[in-house]
Design a protein that fits this description.
The structure holds two protein chains of two kinds. Chain A is α+β, with helices and mostly antiparallel strands. Chain A is about 45% helix and about 20% strand. Chain A has one domain. In chain A, α3 packs across α5. The longest helix of chain A is centred in the C-terminal third of the chain and has 30 residues. Chain A is globular. The N terminus and C terminus of chain A are likely disordered. Chain B is mainly α. Chain B is built from 17 helices and four strands. In chain B, the strands form two sheets. In chain B, strands 1-2 form a two-stranded antiparallel ribbon. In chain B, strands 3-4 form a two-stranded antiparallel ribbon. Chain B is globular and about 75 Å long. The termini of chain B are far apart. The N terminus of chain B is likely disordered. The interface between A and B is large, with 105 and 126 residues.
Amino acid sequence: MRESAWNRPAATLRARNDLQTMQLIPNIHLVKGVYAPFGTDLPPVEVVCQVVPLNGAAYVWLDGVDHNDPVLLPAQVLDGTRRLGTLRDYLEDLRHEQLGEGFDSLLDLAMEQQVSATVLVRACEIMHEEGSDPSQAITTARQWGIMLCELDQAHRAEFQLVSQGSPTPA
Amino acid sequence: MQPHNLTIVRGSAGFKQACALAASAMALAATPAQTSLSALTTPAAKKAERYLTSQAANAQAPSADQTRVLRYATYPPVKTTIYGASGRKETHLTLHPFDVVRLAREASGRVKNIERMTVDPAKIGALLITESALVARVGWSSDGKTPSLGLAQFEPDTAAALAIDPRDPVEAAVGAARLLAEGERFARRHRHIDRNIAISLVYNVSSRLRGQLVEQFGSALALEHLPQPTQHHVKNMAYGQQKMRIFSALYDQHIQQLSHHSAHQRKDFTVNTQPSTHALVTGLPTPAMDLVRRENSQRHLEAAGHRVSAIPMTQQGLDLMRAKISALVQTMTDRLPRSQLDELLRMGRGEPIVARLAQGPTSDHVRGFSASAAHFAHATRATAMDRQASLAGERMEQARRDAPRP
């Protein structure tokens, strides 16, 4: 029988995918951009998030908090996208030195709470922007994630009426 | 398998150097002989190392086919809930309605050059909605032997005859438009048959059965004479055309408000947005246009020369966005019955987001990790199905080549 991916047991595929994902972790790419969901009457939002490479295309994981139903977008739909390099590059950035001990504490909390790269980097940016303490920054970053999920939901609800549904099964 | 050891030492002078060492360690770790640089670690570095090696991108992955479709996106995709092959509800990312309009118009323009005939973009979009609900996946014929691929659900033979790649969204739309043109010609030859029925007869029924139906019923051929799937096809096409006309009107409004588009371009984008009065069309969601028509959207303001800066990711920005979302939901509440709004807000997620995500990072994360394996397995299975269909197509092609010629 011809050997191909779909002939292998699902468990093997899962293990392979998990392994590939784990090996990619330090090399997670980050982008910064502006998310403007057209159709809602809401202003655009500055976002910083991690890139998820899938099937040869770059998606961004916008919210960083919802593992079960993530807000994934093709990277090209963000306006003014700017690459921040990999997570490793980001953590190496010398500008974090100005955060002092706060940066250590942030990493502590990030590991303790096992937040995603999106939330970690967002929290770091919030600390730079507002000078808030690490705990508050992570809380705000998570709340931003939840808010982006709600925004996605509102966006979806608005278009649900016109973009979905059919009178009979196809 | 344990993740590779990785060391990052944070400190004023040695930080960069240690990171360079860590990069070397990663390169070495890729080889069978794994190298540990743990002797250089500090407590902060160990934390960073553990962080980097414990986090994963747990994301529900679109299939390879749908990724090709989403490459066409220029607006944020929307999520759509459809019934999968197993009969269960599935949520997929798919093109924003404006991108569907773009796709249909592009296909219509290309087909005009090929077929010397104008195919209504609303029909092309309706066909894509009817065939796949804009989610590219592998379907199977009733006997389970022939796969159908892409947005327009082309069988490999049909796609080969049209010389298109059924998985490419533009080529699929062009192929669908060419078949629609054939349907239009069929409708002209049989003027006594309803035009929508004639088009679905060409797209959804084999040529032999089509001939039998025309011969048997002649001018009396009506919807109830068609097979059940074809009846659904006719109704969904009519419904899809109505939706496409709404999308087109909204998209035109959007484009016309962009000041950088010339008058010439605006003229090109003008389409007939008169609602159909066809008897098959069921009730339309009339509040839809009011909901999505936004006079002061951000892009419009920017296009008109107003400079509006994006909301920064700060606590203040968060409070501002919360207030705006509340206002949006209130607007929707004012325009829609409460029960309908609740249904819309629940759709796809099953329970309120805040209640689900506010359970604390640890439990959320643990659930996320357990679910991530299933998501990736799901994505892999979808890819595997694509490959299976592709192989089936190749086998059919090979069998046809190998068949003895008469």
